[in-house]
Design brief:
The chain is of the alpha+beta class and 291 residues long. It contains 6 helices and 9 strands.
């Protein structure tokens, strides 16, 4: 196998490149991401799933663009009639886009923070609708500016608490599931770009200080009981990114060896930092407001 990073690193997952990267000179049984090789091919199941994912992403982007254009058209109209409806429209956009993402990706403990965007949208819709209703029914409940700030602070606190609690819970669960340790070789990586101020241990591109980072999803090859497994971490990270051909210790599940986990302290520390920051900002704002 050519160990060059460029040959086996791509921005979009490519099944053909992954298959070429696999080292199997003795023709041992091969399982790729939980699917036996005999059921795979360059147009096999994994390739079809990737194609479906790409189509779903394209549909989601198209829906977002259409909805965003609709919001841009609606907001100037609502400004002239009822400014609060601008908040309703923007909240509905966030809610709609968030629900589309949840419908595509599903809800799991690992992706529970994906609920943040639709929840923010729902809160904006509720606040604006309640206040619009109050204008025609003066005796009804409504959100004052102080109440809106309190709701925002509580929301920040909940998000921060989630960042503190969820990653350790996910880590603990995966450590219980993936109890066996094995040395694996990184044979392929796909990546995408993300704005981030955290560059240590990762790959940063663009101008210095621009904060544009590559987040990598490594694919690992390892052997269990005479069978070669090739599995993806399933998460994109810029922490401890291996070069092609590098060896790392990973954990796998004895019941399902294709299920792997690589504990990365850096990702959990970052989540804790953001969680503490969100909670601190929320508490500080509430203290200042009620002094």
């Amino acid at each position: 196998m050519n160990s060059g990073n460029d040959e086996f690193t791509s921005p979009v997952f490519d099944m053909g490149t992954l298959m070429r990267a696999i080292v199997n000179p003795y023709g041992k049984r091969l399982i790729v991401d939980g699917v036996p090789a005999e059921r795979l091919g360059l147009e096999g199941k994994l390739g079809l799933e990737e194609s479906k994912t790409s189509k779903a992403d394209s549909i989601k982007v198209a829906i977002f663009v259409i909805a965003f254009i609709g919001v841009l058209i609606a907001m100037p109209i609502f400004v002239q009639t009822e400014p609060l409806l601008c908040m309703t429209t923007f909240g509905a956009l966030l809610l709609f886009v968030g629900l589309v993402g949840l419908f595509q990706d599903g809800v799991s403990l690992e992706s529970i923070m994906n609920l943040v965007i639709p929840l923010i949208g729902a809160v904006l819709v509720v606040i604006s609708v309640v206040n619009v209703y109050h204008k025609s029914h003066p005796g009804s409940f409504y959100f004052t500016q102080e109440r809106m700030i309190e709701v925002a602070c509580v929301g920040f606190g909940i998000v921060g608490l989630g960042m503190l609690v969820i990653p350790p819970v996910v880590h603990s669960r995966k450590m219980r599931e993936c109890t066996q340790v094995i040395t694996a070789m990184c044979i392929y990586r796909n990546y995408h770009y993300s704005k981030s101020s955290h560059k240590r241990g990762g790959r940063t591109v663009g101008r210095r200080g621009s904060g544009i980072s590559r987040l990598y999803n490594p694919w690992w090859q390892y052997e269990v009981n005479g069978t070669i497994y090739v599995s993806s971490e399933g998460v994109f990270t810029n922490v401890d990114v291996p070069d092609i051909g590098n060896l790392r210790e990973i954990r796998f599940s004895p019941e399902k060896p294709s299920k792997i986990y690589r504990p990365l302290m850096g990702t959990r520390v970052g989540s804790v930092f953001l969680g503490v920051m969100c909670i601190g900002m929320a508490v500080l704002a509430l203290v200042v407001m009620h002094r």
